[in-house]
Amino acid sequence: MGIGDLSVGGSVKLKGPIKLGNLSIAGSLSVEGDLEADVLEVSGSGRVAGRLKSGRITVSGSLLVEKNIEGGQIEVSGSLSVSETVEAENLSISGSLKAGEVRAGRLEIRGVAKGGIFKGREVEVGRES
Predict the structure, then answer these.
(1) Which domain holds residue 67?
(2) Is residue 55 part of a domain?
(3) Measured between alpha carbons, how far is residue 32 from residues 44, 64, 92, 115 in Å?
(4) Domain for residue 129, yes or no?
């Protein structure tokens, strides 16, 4: 399924795979399958039962991904939980992240990060982390 932009203010459940331009979640969104979006902004609650791919991901609410995330720029000030791997060019965590494995070009941790393996070409960890 491919559509333009989507803004979720209530509660929505979709069957994937889904490809979008800009996706904004202020309410609740559940995707059964894979999700691809140019830009993903989560201030509410999101769940992806498959893989997530996006150029830019901003999470100030909560997001659960049951497989992998592949992203360009990922910023987490809320809560992000990924069952398998997070791959990003730039990953910034000021909230909480739980993942099986994290691979990033630039990795900045100022919040809580839990996982098996963390890899980055450039890693910065704050005192409070």
Answers:
(1) 6-120
(2) yes
(3) 18, 12, 27, 24
(4) no
CB 3 within 8 A of CB 17: no
Question: How does pLDDT run across 83-127, given as a tens digit for each residue?
Answer: 999 999 999 999 999 999 999 999 999 999 998 888 888 888 876
Pair of tokens at residue 31: 């995707």
28 three-class SS: strand
Burial class (CB in 10 A: 0-12, 13-18, 19+), 109: buried
Q: What is the average per-residue pLDDT within 27-31?
A: 96
- How many structural domains does the chain have? 1
Q: How far is CA 119 from the centre of its chain?
A: 17
Residue 71 resides in a domain: yes
